[in-house]
Amino acid sequence: MEPLERLLNLVGLLLETRTPLTFEQIRETLEPYRQEKVDSAKRMFERDKDILREYGVPLQLVDTDAWGTEQGYVIPKDAYYLPEIAFTPEELAALFVAAQGVRNDTPAEEAVRKLMVGAEGSTLAGLAGGPLASGSDARGSLVMAVAAAAQDRRRVRFGYRTSKGTASDRDVDAFTALFRAGHWYLVGFDHEREEARSFRLSRFTSDLTDAGAGSEPPDGFRAADLIAAGPWTAAGEDRATIVLSPDVAWWATGSLIGAEHVRTRDDGWDEITVPVADERELAPILLQLGPDAIAMDPPSLRDQIVARLEALLA
Amino acid sequence: MPERKGRAPKTAERLGRMLVIVPFLVQHPGSELSEVARAFDVPVDQLRRDLDLLFMSGLPPYGPGDLIEVDVDEDDRIWISMAEHFARPLRLSRSEALALYLRGTELLGTTDLPEAPALRSAMDKLRASLGPETLGDAGGIETADPGAPIEALEPIRGAARERRRVRVDYFAHSSGEWTSRVIDPEQVFVALGHWYVAAWDVTIDEERLFRVDRIRRVEMTGEGFDPRGLEGAGRSLYTPTEEDVPVRLRLSPAARWIAEYYATTDEHEGADGSLDITMPARSLGWVARLLLRVGSDATVLDPPELTAQVATLARATLDRYGE
After folding, report:
1. B314, A312: Cβ pair inside 8 Å?
2. Alpha helix positions (H), B190-301
3. Which residue of A60, A148, A309, B82 is most buried, as measured by CB atoms within 10 A?
4. Residue A308 domain-assigned?
5. A174 and A246 assigned to the same domain
């Protein structure tokens, strides 16, 4: 008999049994364990239990009666069976798209396959295929660890290198795992600096070490506020006016967060406005567009750009 | 699934698969063998072998009427009975639920996809059904608002899905020009917050990577194509070619981010916190624009003509401000 068959029978037996079964009872019922030497049967059973538990089968050892004289094995149905979740075909297809992953994200794929059981009959063909994947620059296992730490409000330690190259060990109460513009961040309370900070996962230089229970974020805490929207902060109330050449306007407008199109000039250039909190952050972005972008207003932004160009040519 | 230890990884793997596939087959009588194999990512032969074994399993006392019955008919449709105890799959483990939730969060935070509303409601249902012990409370995982919708994304996705050759207008950052190209789009994916399509550029008969937000017009040519198995998500964004020039830059701390965003072939830490990098570039045009952005925070070590190109670009830009 093949091991797979034995395991399927064991799961079935322990799911359907009315009372917990001792090893002896299991041995009497399932033929493969009925070998002469009890020791080797027992060893085989131990290995099988390990395999089942690794797969998350909730195999439990419980008292067989109220007096606790004897213990037996059982798989409680409510712990085993996935609850029924009424997904629409569109929802299931969306989950399927999400799970198709970067570098074979097998846990996510496994999850969506379990959920597919509730799919309506004809959805299967529509689900398969579909070349689309999203992803980030962080290791999947690190994202998982950070997300779990944030959900469980753990205090964690890790090595970190800032964008400016300074490396240090950090000690943080995890509040939130936040995804923005292609990057995952850990947002939490930094014990050394005694304030909430954000850390980009791609800059971690070590795995997480758990350092016990963390703390709750303060009332009204918004993790997103700690991460700049783009290379510049889009939260400013002031707006700058920029004109873009026809070559770049089409895509550059979309890449400037909060940009609003004002008009297309007679010469084909587009006039737009963008929110600006700090001109020193906006100026470099415009400079990368070279002669295809001109800052019109405020004058201080123009001065900033001109000064940078002159410094470069000096 | 995480990597399995233990003596029989193969058995464990097959078991895991069966505990997911059998419930599906119970709920969907008459499913087609090859479709099931594809959806569950298992070779058809393997699926057949696994189904053959199911015959032997069941419930005590394991008489003929207690065993699972499996029938694959002449149309390759699968019928299963006597498997009520496997009518529902195993619960999602925490890591499975978390992985799926995180992938969904990434997709929601990337761009306004047509699937977004369905995905959002699916994730809400998932969280509600699995309970806080599996997916925690609502605060732990978040995404910021996605950027603006990308017009070319849906047509490109459709073309990749249906393997249609398309003509596109593309803004090449390297040359700073719009070009018209005929491409076979194969893989659509996100890297560093941007959508890319890995495609065969039919015009030059070479593989190319295109930023989807720089594609202006997508036009069906009416032709189809056979996929060449191009790499998608997770690939390096830089494909080496023979025309590449190695660009060497010295970056001050404020410009170190360049090493995070672009593929480098060599990096050396300097004593003063500077970083020397070598990055291959097919053309110097985009590097010059990048250098205009970082200004004095980067110094060109090589090639010398890049310095001249930056100066020319700076002068042309300065001219726009001359009154």
Report:
1. yes
2. 257-261, 285-294
3. A309
4. yes
5. no
| SS3 at position A106 | helix
Same-domain pairing of A102 and A43: no
The CATH architecture one would assign to domain B153-224 is Roll (2.30)
> How many angstroms separate the CA of residue A68 from the nearest CA in chain B?
26
Q: What is the mean pLDDT of residues B272-297?
A: 90
- Indicate yes or no: pTM above 0.95: no
CA distances from A237 to A160, A234, A244, A302, B148 (A): 33, 9, 22, 18, 20
ipTM score of complex: 0.77
CB pairs under 8 A between A and B: 378
Q: What share of chain A is helix, strand, coil (3-state, %, to 5)?
A: 40, 25, 35
pLDDT (average), residues A276-305: 91
Residues A44, A281: Cα–Cα separation, whole Å: 65
Q: Do A94 and B119 touch (CB under 8 A)?
A: yes
Retrieve residue A152's tokens. 């469980």
Which of B260, B290, B317 lies closest to A202 in CB terms?
B260
**A114 contacts B96? CB cut-off 8 A:** yes
Cβ contact, residue pair B232, A133, below 8 Å = yes
Select the more confidently predicted residue: A310 or A254. A310
For residue B90, give the nearest of A29, A80, A130 by CB distance: A80
CATH, domain B245-319, list 1.10.10, 3.30.300, 3.30.70, 3.20.20: 3.30.70
| Contact A212/B at CB under 8 A | no
Residue among B8, B50, B256 minimizing CB distance to A163? B256
Average pLDDT rounded to a whole number, residues A23-32:
90
Q: Tally the domains of chain A.
A: 4
